Request: fold
Amino acid sequence: MDESFERRLTGQPVSPGIAMGTLRVEARGCLAPVTRSISPTELQSEWERFEAALARTENELIDLKARVEKLSGEKEAAIFDAHLLFLRDRSVMARLRKEMPVRLHNIESVYYAVVQNFMEGLRRVGDSYLRSRVVDIADVLQRVLKNMDGSSGGTLSGLGKGGAPCVLAAYDLAPSDTADLDTSTVLGFVTEAGSAVSHTAILARSLGLPAVVAVPGLVVDSRMGQHVILDGYSGELILNPTRETLEHYRRLQAEKQKAYETLVEMRDLPAETRDGHRIRLAANVEFAHEYGAIRRSGAEGVGLFRTEFFLLGNSELPDEEAQYRHYKVLVESCAPHEVIFRTLDSGGDKLPFEESAEKEENPFLGWRGIRVSLSRAEIFKEQLRAVLRASAHGRVGVMFPMVSGLTEVKEALSLLDECREELRQRGQLFDERMRVGIMIEVPSAAMMADVLARYVDFFSIGTNDLTQYTIAVDRVNYRVASMFRPTHPGVVRLMHRTIQAGVPTAICGEMGGDITLLPLLVGLGAKELSCGTHRLPLVRFAIRHLNYAECREVAEQALQAEDSKTIRALSKALALRSYPNLFE
Ligand code: PEP
Ligand code: MG
Reply:
């Protein structure tokens, strides 16, 4: 294939915007090999080439081991045993055997993609020993590639740290990688795996980085240093764009920016429908650098502060005092609006709370959210006291994630009561009326909403997890990403049931920032919507062009509908009629 032609790879857009620059393929230790197509008849010879490279690499490693043993001793040389073991790792070989006849690419490029995938898996496990093995594996990969014809060596370091501005391409990024991206050099990112409601995608939106995920063949089809355009609206990665394409995108970028600024200028107008139905529009926040954007976007405070990025983003967990100081800054900067702190929600696809030797088979069903906090009560109480103390400086709410039923709520409330008492004894101030809520994101909690409503002041529906758990579709698995449908009638009915329980209910999942689904959410009776600051001006404009009575009709019909497509179409039709210009 001629490398100089414009080519387009398509994936799923997850964070809007346009990035233009050179591509940096994050190869985690070595550069991507050249890819070429092969015919099925070449499969045998490809395997022979690969076997020969493995044998050469094996000899090299044995030699190396012997040399190191002589120079430094047996213990130091033992690290090469791990290299040798990985060289013929059974799971990698099995995957390679499966992928070769499907992809029909030269074996080094498929091997490269398979090993990238394997390393990504290791990077996500809690065990630091296994994670550290990634370096050894990258080393083996590089050696094997070097021992094959047409391979390339070389190393990369860091995720876009330093260097020229670039668009980052990777097999996948973990949420911790994304949180750590150097946004002064990374203009946007694109991944082969991933999904729209993964925390990686959510963080891209918080960072304001255009992002596209689920691009098949990305790692093997793209080249380091290629000129590219990343379209975070359509989901395209354009390799080697022509002059006309570049011109088109420069114009589009300028137009989008202007349109967005016009929306931002309306930030002081209330989020109220044409027939006077008022919605509180608040921000979802993860990082301190977003605090300025809360006010600039016109948000009425914070509806979801995901505290885990602050708590686990440091090498040590901040203590009560450090948390209090941090929370106080946010609370004061949002006054007179309320800030809702969600207590630690570690686990799932986010950073684990503790490193553990045991890998969780199903992390989303495992040690996550309130379960972690309740089993580490002293640490949980430090966070609760810090939030309570911050409530002395402005309006504060607290909510618990991943609640599955009343027992957890009662336990959490009782610990909160203990914290109140401790602060009274210390003579420290807090707001006695601080609102306490729970996230509704597990179907059993939605089913029990009428009971839970007796114990808390508010609900906040986490549609990302509620969808994942209701229809049993892993939110980060790109193979089932197309099945992730928040408008599934099962999800919509649970949301309705939750709202009907009678306590003020907010929606803080990604659905809350989706202008296509806005008529449905407003019609179901959500009192508050919370979304990323970048989406907020759009949502405000959209609310102001809706009619509440029409939204209610949409919701009523949705509750009778039989499938997700119908519900989506109902909401979209009203959205298109009400604010067509937002879809241009
Ligand atoms: C949700 O699940 O919808 C939610 C808002 O929480 P998170 O995305 O952090 O899991
Ligand atoms: Mg959640």
Observations:
- Residues 150-160 have pLDDT under 50 and may be disordered.
